[in-house]
Design a protein that fits this description.
798 residues, mainly beta, four-stranded mixed sheet, 4 helices, globular
Length: 798
């Protein structure tokens, strides 16, 4: 599931993941993501739209995808608390050439056209010694969201959420000796979106009474005095373009003249790797995996002046959504930009057994990773121009009395609304082992452990109007304004280095945060398995997993005073610790009907302790991560695949009850006096039921092999927020609806060429996937499935 403008997915396995209160925003992900043996997961940024999340690799030449549920820390270098997702690519051949190619076109109902091209080729360079495999892919993704005017509904931006993707994957295999080989690899990827796929939900008409804009009293305890300006009355009509329209990306030069401004987002990743494999006497396999993971996500989000204009409309309105355009006043806008740069070097060395007849099978290794995350975010606006146009109204008035464009350390630019620079450095050294011993030919026992030494250092420089600077400060850009309460102003220190660490008090233009965290958890694993027959297996596994803790940047006390008071705390916690899961699973794998069908089934129970949950401060728009929640995830999974005559059938049905097992309190020591973050029995945000069904009919058309395939996917209900009476409850968001989607594909093979036609989202499902709401605003946006999409592909293999 994706949320907001951070389009990278939040991955959830068995209720453990990026959802609801325990969202991954601000914390390490719970699910590991790999290309072959190279870990890709990265830490997220707290409470910000900054390119958070581990981007999934876009691979055209793919051998298979492995989904491993439950903790995997005893098998793989990077710890995975909830599970692991592995993208396995083909190994270069040293003997034969092979390849595949694709061209395709598609069109979205009510949207634009797209196309795709891919090619892969590989084989020996030196027979039996040196081989390669290279693949490339690109696609132009069509858009379907239009930008429409608030005032008359005319379209000023068409198919704005279009984008494109590029990827390149390369492997060079050198068989140095019969027992030693080296694989040099590189994966590169670019993803670009011109704009978000969020759209504005239906809303009623908004009536704005005319009035006089003047000094109406105190703003944050400060009196302003400035000339009066008269504004006319007008009405913003109701928005009824459900599922297809956005209207936050326009500069309203008048009610009829609107200029579209994009909000682009781009992710670029490059991952070189070197893998060495040594076979020792056909007994032990040694492997060294060296990886450099570098990815960067950058972009900016343009917003019209609605949030700013709220501050300059003192007269009565029927809604707290302020207009984008006011006659005689320059259009007010903000641009929120972000640059997320992640670099990680990892080294894994492991040894494992080779001989399958040995009663002892094991894998053991050491994993080291050193990573850095650099965040630069800021929000400039043009309030200074509006200030001058309104004959000296202070910029601070537009933002609730905060100063802007006035706090600048010599030689260091300061964005007027907000500027933030974050550096997170992580070092992990882990040892892991997993061994299985065959007590009899049918009964096996497994045991494993992982020891991790983890250190994180965090630093941040944060400034701007929303960073907690003194209210009512009047600077050079506010020429002509009169501050009537000068005694309230705390002079800025002349020595900016004197600003205290973790400062959010008045008098310093910047907050400076420097903190470290050190943890060293140990997580075990045990299991039993019993072979009923050579093709039928029963098993039980207990495993513990963890994800590391982190550092919280302080929220501005002045801005968030009301939120902190409601929680009963004076400040947010400086750090949060690792959380853990205890996973219990029992199941079986069976071959049925003389091998024509496979059935896999399991039941599980997961106890999640000290959950890292992201707590939003709704009035000021900030958030922080805390521990203290406990939850369980209980359910079952059944997967079946089989062939009945010309029909290939598959089904996957799962049930998961993921709930909090006790009330979550903001300050546990206060007991009943503390604010309730979540209630016992609240859902974690994970759907109760998931169902995937597929049927493929194989037949001949004019003696050419053909197929017709239909797939159906269902997710059940869940809760987007915690329940009524909790700090995060939102009645409009609370109920997460069930979803239904279907895909249809048909194709024919002419020798090595496949010609295929498909329809994605066959029923054109428009069920809401996520909802968003602006700070102190009832503007609600959401996202849904891509509308019905028609496409054709030609695939050629050799």
């Amino acid at each position: 599931r994706t949320s907001g403008a951070d389009n990278n997915p939040n991955l959830t396995l068995r209720g453990i993941g990026g959802n609801a209160l325990n969202g991954t925003s601000g914390a390490a992900p719970t699910t590991g993501v790999y290309i072959d043996d190279q870990p890709l997961q990265k830490r997220n940024a707290n409470g910000l739209v900054t390119g958070s999340g581990s981007p999934l690799p876009l691979l055209y030449d793919l051998d298979r995808i492995e989904v491993l549920r439950g903790p995997q820390g005893t098998l793989y270098g990077g710890s995975s608390e909830g599970g692991t997702l592995r993208f396995i690519t083909p190994t270069p051949s040293l003997t034969t050439y092979s390849g595949l190619a694709r061209v395709g076109v598609s069109g979205v109902e009510g949207g634009g056209l797209g196309n795709e091209e891919g090619i892969a080729i590989g084989g020996p360079i030196v027979q039996d010694k040196l081989g390669f495999r290279i693949s490339g892919y690109r696609d132009d993704r069509p858009g379907w969201i239009d930008d429409k005017s608030l005032y008359d509904g005319h379209t000023f931006g068409t198919d704005i959420n279009k984008g494109h993707d590029y990827s390149l994957n390369f492997k060079l295999l050198w068989q140095i000796t019969p027992d030693l080989k080296a694989t040099l690899g590189f994966f590169g990827q670019e993803n670009y979106d011109q704009d978000s796929s969020n759209f504005r939900l239906n809303s009623g008409a908004q009536v704005f009474a005319g009035g006089v804009f003047n000094n109406t009293g105190k703003i944050n305890g400060v009196n302003f005095s400035f000339p009066a300006t008269t504004f006319p009355a007008y009405t913003i009509p109701a928005m009824t373009q459900y599922g297809e329209t956005s209207n936050s990306n326009g500069r309203y030069l008048s009610t009829t003249n609107v200029q579209y401004v994009s909000s682009p987002r781009r992710t670029i990743a490059g991952i070189p790797s070197l893998t060495l494999d040594y076979n020792w006497h056909d007994t032990l396999a040694f492997r060294s995996i060296s990886t450099w993971d570098s990815n960067r996500t950058s972009g900016n989000t343009f917003t019209g002046g609605g949030s700013v204009r709220t501050g300059i409309l003192p007269y009565s309105v029927t809604s707290n959504i302020a207009p984008e355009y006011i006659k005689g006043v320059p259009d007010v806008f903000n641009t929120y930009f972000f640059n997320n740069r992640h670099n990680a070097y990892s080294e894994e060395v492991r040894v494992s057994t080779i001989d399958p007849s040995s009663p002892l099978q094991f894998v053991a290794g050491i994993f080291f990773q050193k990573s850095s995350l650099r965040e630069t975010v800021g929000q400039p606006g043009n309030e200074n121009l509006v200030s001058l146009a309104l004959r000296g109204v202070p910029e601070g008035y537009f933002l609730g009395g905060m100063p802007v464009n006035t706090m600048q350390v010599p030689g260091q630019p300061l964005i007027d609304v907000s500027t933030r620079n974050i550096a997170v450095n992580e070092t992990e050294l882990s040892g892991f082992a997993d061994a299985t011993y065959a007590i009899t030919s049918k009964l096996k026992v497994t045991a494993g452990f992982r020891y991790t030494d983890y250190t994180q250092s965090f630093s941040q420089i944060y400034g701007g109007a929303v960073a907690g600077a003194p209210p009512g400060f009047v600077g050079a850009s506010d020429t002509g304004a009169v501050e009537t309460n000068p005694a309230s102003i705390t002079p800025f220190p002349t020595n900016y280095a004197a600003c205290p660490t973790n400062n959010s008090t008045l008098g310093c233009p910047y907050q400076y945060t420097n903190n470290t965290l050190h943890e060293h958890p140990i997580t075990p694993k045990v299991g039993l398995s019993y072979n009923l027959t050579s093709a039928d297996l029963l098993y039980f596994t207990y495993a513990q997993g963890f994800r590391p803790g982190g550092v919280n940047p302080p929220v501005p006390v002045a801005q968030c005073a009301a939120d902190l008071a409601a929680l009963g705390i004076g400040a947010t916690p400086a750090t949060y610790k690792h959380d853990t899961v205890d996973s219990y699973e029992a199941g079986g794998k069976f071959r049925l009907f003389d091998g024509r069908a496979q059935l896999n089934t399991s039941v599980f129970r997961i106890n999640w302790q000290d959950i890292q949950f992201t707590l939003p401060l709704r009035q000021c728009g900030f958030s922080y991560v805390a521990n203290g929640a406990a939850a369980t995830s209980t359910g079952f999974e059944t997967q079946a695949t089989g062939r009945v005559g010309p029909f290939l059938l598959n089904g996957n049905v799962a049930y998961d009850q993921a709930i909090y097992t006790a009330d979550v309190l903001a300050v546990p020591s206060q007991g009943a006096k503390s604010a309730i973050i979540a209630k016992k029995g609240d859902n974690l945000g994970s759907p109760d039921w998931t169902v995937n069904l597929g049927a493929e009919y194989d037949h001949d058309v004019l003696n050419y092999p053909s197929y017709l395939r239909l797939d159906y996917m269902y997710t059940g209900k869940y809760e987007r927020t915690t329940s009524q009476g909790t700090t995060s409850y939102n009645a409009a968001f609370f109920n997460g609806n069930e979803t239904h989607t279907m895909n249809l594909r048909t194709g024919v093979y002419v020798k090595a060429t496949e010609v295929a036609f498909y329809i994605k989202n066959l029923t054109n499902s428009q069920e809401i996937l996520n909802l968003n709401e602006g700070v102190n605003s009832n503007v609600m946006t959401g996202s849904t499935f891509q509308p019905r999409t028609y496409g054709m592909q030609i695939n050629y293999r050799w």
